[in-house]
Amino acid sequence: MRTERLPTLEDVARIAGVSRATVSRVINGIRNVDPQLHEVVWDAVGRTGYVPNRLARSLVTRRTGTVALVVSDSESHDDDPFMSRFFADPYFGRVVGGLMSVLRAQGVQLALQIVGTDDGRKRLVGDLRNGQADGAIVLSLPAVDPLPRMLTEGGVPAVLIGRPAEPVPIDYVDLANDTGAALAAERLLSRGAQRLAMISGPADVPASSDRIAGFRRALARRGHGWVPIETGNFTRDSGEAAMRTLLAGHPGLDGVFAANDLMALGALSALREAGRRVPQDVAVVGFDDSSAAVAASPALTTIRHPLEDMAAEAARLLLARIEEPAMRVSSVIYEPALVERDSA
Amino acid sequence: MRTERLPTLEDVARIAGVSRATVSRVINGIRNVDPQLHEVVWDAVGRTGYVPNRLARSLVTRRTGTVALVVSDSESHDDDPFMSRFFADPYFGRVVGGLMSVLRAQGVQLALQIVGTDDGRKRLVGDLRNGQADGAIVLSLPAVDPLPRMLTEGGVPAVLIGRPAEPVPIDYVDLANDTGAALAAERLLSRGAQRLAMISGPADVPASSDRIAGFRRALARRGHGWVPIETGNFTRDSGEAAMRTLLAGHPGLDGVFAANDLMALGALSALREAGRRVPQDVAVVGFDDSSAAVAASPALTTIRHPLEDMAAEAARLLLARIEEPAMRVSSVIYEPALVERDSA
DNA sequence: GAACACTCGGAAAGCGCTCTCCAACCCCGA
DNA sequence: TCGGGGTTGGAGAGCGCTTTCCGAGTGTTC
Predict the structure, then answer these.
(1) For the segment A76-117, what is each residue's pLDDT rounded down to a tens digit?
(2) Cβ separation of B295 and A294 shorter than 8 Å?
(3) How many independent structural domains does chain A possess?
(4) What is the pLDDT of residues A202-223, one digit of tens each?
(5) In the complex, which nucleotide's C1' lies nearest to the CA atom of residue B53?
(6) CA-based max dimension of chain B
(7) Cross-chain Cβ contact A89/B94 below 8 Å
(8) Quick one: B207 and B296 in the same domain?
(9) B315: confidence class by pLDDT, cuts 50, 70, 90
(10) Which of A120, A188, A234, B163 has the most CB atoms less than 10 A away?
(11) How far apart are CA B240 and CA B248, in angstroms?
């Protein structure tokens, strides 16, 4: 099976009685080839079951029809369960789904790449420059990541999902995280909550710090000063722990904003355990509008994060930049919206 | 940036003052090259910042260091939301996570491929035979899918996750779905439930039919005859609808087995809406032990599905087959386990 | 009928790499 | 001094494709 040689351009050419060049032209629909020959060639293609070899083609055209989805992680070891947690999180799947919705239509493939070390990043950039893929969509996890800069300096078309921590001239799509957090704050206040608190993500990643800043600012505007903030790491368990800590330090709180739904779920557990009713005693607002939000009980009032749309836009942006590398660097910011359910 | 030509083997050879062949040998660590030259070459590599071109290498070695993750769907259109639902489901992410855990350690990359038409399948097999990837992990969604057979006939190393609907000599990993369903049945019975029902997935996909068969068989063994089964499509909403239908037709039922957690979640909603308490009035068992199970309220008693482990094993199997194409076809069946929580 | 403009198809030069020969060389024993 | 065995490094032939030249053929115009 695998052993028998596959038909090549050469074979097709021989059978059709023309040159390799002609077959190539016919297959790629280039120039006006005599309709008669055209037919003869396609016939030979059909008879041989010829399929062009993408590798060989890419080698000369410098185009692969592939885009890399790069997950840039900080120093992760193989036995580190973090990555598997990352993949199990709906975040990853939603991004892939959004990307595929536009890539698939263009016949572009997606190659998954994970880099966890600077060495890995260097190799990745090298491979990309060598035409391993036409461009990259980057999911950058570490608080500060050299990858975006390395990519732009290497001249690799790339689009970030989520803004870079430090300014880099690179395309990206992002969510107005601060606005989202402000929506949460206003919802809690308008529900009558007075003593608010927040369960945030790691303070050094942009999405997190933006949510913290947005929440604080919105409260300040409404005359609320300092609010207790407990830091989690976006997992359910960390949300539960954070909630316990908050309750211990501030038993009178009546409103909580969690920086994602998973942590809100954890908070719900901790509140139930502490005998607090949601939303009567404590109102809770999550973030993301993930499927977990509707599964929760009470169903989570949360902030909608149009991740699929963002990923799709990132893909479009990347395709455009691949087509036109000199294009001006741009970024697209999506507006979040409040989703009202039962928890606040 | 992108314009400047990248250093090639040739350049390195010139700088090191040796031939291309020698540089190639040094880089690939082949044969005993004079230690002195060895050093000279590496030095030149460092100075030029040379990175081997994978494409060119693959073209001659017939090895890409890439494995395709193929999602074989039936006739899906671009505006069909099904795919995005599929990606958002934790199933996809868990599979990717499991695969990556072993592929990454081997430096193997994963390329995502989606095929929705027979034409697409044909092209895919052609590309794979041409060495687009070294092998494929297949997630086959349609009830009956020609892809597995096409792959084996094309001599493409491939491993299925989930057994093929019709017997094909191909490696696969699967879960003992029937055993899992039996565990659910026994749990319900031992909790004292007497009038059981099931919310199944589409009856024509193997995983579904196995769960149905296992559930029925276990009940029959315990002297329970016919049980009402309502069919859903693995989404939350379909579970809710199915539960309503069941309640309408069998108001007295006191135990439900849902073929996955998402549908169990929907069932929970429908039961609450109907004023039934879970587990006091109606006991509910789910399937998968997804993250939704613990988020649910009451937390779902469910069947653990070690998907990450299965995917990892699939990856190992594939790597082995790529290494040794003549290896005997094998399959690995995982045993599910009952996870006791609150809903049953 | 010659000069010109086109159209079409073929030859061949790569793309960047690997790997099989083969020549050159070294060391040893006869 | 010479032949044989064992290294080591270089030349060069591909892997399967695209694409630039060019030459040959056709039709058009004065």
Answers:
(1) 554 555 677 788 888 899 999 999 999 999 999 999 999 989
(2) no
(3) 3
(4) 998 999 999 999 999 999 999 8
(5) C16
(6) 87
(7) no
(8) yes
(9) very high
(10) A188
(11) 12
Residue B86: its chain A contacts at CB < 8 A? Answer: 97
Look-up of token digits 């039919």: B209
Owner of token pair 């041989």: A48
CB-based contact (8 Å) between B97 and chain A?
yes
The verdict on whether omega for the bond into residue B167 sits within 30 degrees of 0, i.e. cis, is no
B105 and B152 in a single domain? The answer is yes
B144 and B205 share one domain: no
**A2, A55, A113: residue with CB nearest B55:** A55
> Within an 8 Å CB–CB cutoff, is residue A297 touching chain B?
yes
Look at B159 and B33; give whichever has higher pLDDT: B159
pLDDT band at residue A1 under the 50/70/90 scheme = very low
| Number of C-beta neighbours around residue B129 at 10 A | 19
Q: What is the 3-state secondary structure (H, E, C) of A91-113?
A: HHHHHHHHHHHHHHHHCCEEEEE
Is residue B195 in a domain?
A: yes
Which structural domain range is residue B37 located in? 9-52
Token pair, residue B94, equals 């868990």
User: Is B34's CB less than 7 Å from nucleic acid strand C?
Assistant: no
Mean pLDDT of chain B: 92
CB contacts of B60 in chain A (<8 Å) are: none
Q: Are residues A153 and A213 in the same domain?
A: no
The overall average pLDDT reported for chain A is 92
Nearest CA in chain B to A67: B111
Bridge-based pairing of strands A302-304 and A337-339 is antiparallel
Chain C bases having any atom below 7 Å from a protein CB: 7-20
What pLDDT was estimated at residue B1? Answer: 41
Task: Please judge whether B295 and A265 are an interchain contact, meaning their C-beta atoms are less than 8 angstroms apart.
Answer: yes
For an interface test with B, give the residue of A45, A114, A130, A323 to mutate (most B CBs within 10 A): A130
Same domain, B228 and B329: no
Residue type, A309: D
Interval B254-294: pLDDT, tens: 999 999 999 999 999 999 999 999 999 999 999 999 888 88
Tokens standing for B80?
A: 């069909």
* Amino acid at residue number B87: F
pTM of the model: 0.92
State residue B33's pLDDT score. Answer: 74
Name residues whose C-beta falls within 8 Å of residue B128's C-beta, 6 or more positions apart in sequence: B68, B135, B136, B151, B154, B156
Positive or negative: CA dihedral A264, A269, A272, A274: negative
For residues B284 and B272, what is the distance between their CA atoms, to the nearest angstrom?
12
Option in B84, B112, B297 nearest A112 (CB): B112
pLDDT digits (tens, 9 = 90+) for B136-187: 999 998 888 999 999 999 999 999 999 998 899 999 999 999 999 999 999 9
A34 touches strand C (CB under 7 A): yes
Is B326 near strand C, with its CB below 7 A from some atom of it?
no
What is the mean predicted confidence (pLDDT) over B235-248? 95
Mark whether A217 and A237 lie in a shared domain: yes
- The fraction of chain B above a pLDDT of 90, given in percent, is 75
**Looking at the DSSP assignment, which residues form a beta bridge with residue A229?**
A198
